[in-house]
Specification:
With 166 residues, this protein is an alpha/beta fold. 39% of the residues lie in helices and 14% in strands. It has a single domain, classed as HAD superfamily/HAD-like (Rossmann fold). It is built from six helices and six strands. It has a six-stranded parallel β-sheet with strand order 1-6-5-2-3-4, sandwiched between helices. The radius of gyration is 15 Å and the shape is globular.
């Protein structure tokens, strides 16, 4: 089912670079806001920088696929982290994912998509044939729409968690 994530984890830091490499992952595609960083942060945290370095040490590229419409936010953040990005990705459409695969030189089965939203990150990644990891949003912010959306996502989080063989 295309709305069910392959895996459900608390955060990106539960993805172990060594284990990913052993599983044949060559690129981690990631949502930006509330997945790699809270909305309010303009610069990558030390923890995120360290995780990116650990991925690279295993030969894995980190690459952002974002729907962000703020013109400089995504490219500035990714430049500071030293990674590539596709913005205005149009998730859950597959165009942004195809572009990310092209830029990282990966086939869909060599990539992993990690994000905090079912109806963009997971749905789009699944449609693009990429294994998907759903994480918890890093911060709730003041937007009540986010809480409503999180409620609507609950069955799919649950289905992803209850999948066998994880
Ligand atoms: Mg997000």
């Amino acid at each position: 089912m295309s709305l069910v994530p392959t895996r459900v984890l608390e955060s990106i830091y539960d993805l172990d670079p060594q284990a990913l490499a052993a599983a044949g992952v060559k690129a981690v595609l990631a949502d930006l806001d509330n997945t790699l960083t809270p909305y309010e942060e303009a610069l990558p945290s030390p923890a995120l920088r360290a995780w990116k370095e650990a991925l690279e040490a295993q030969g894995i590229a980190l690459f952002v696929v974002s729907n962000s419409r703020k013109s400089r936010r995504c490219p500035d953040f990714c430049a500071a982290l030293g990674i590539g990005c596709v913005r205005h990705a149009g998730k859950p459409g597959t165009k942004g994912f195809r572009e990310a695969l092209k830029q990282t030189g990966c086939r869909p089965e060599e990539a992993l998509m990690v994000g905090d939203q079912i109806f963009t990150d997971v749905w789009g990644g699944n449609r693009a044939g990429i294994a998907t990891v759903l994480v918890k949003p890093m911060a709730w912010g003041k937007n009540p729409g986010r809480i409503l959306r999180y409620a609507a996502e609950t069955p799919f989080r649950w289905l992803g968690r209850s999948k066998p063989g994880r």
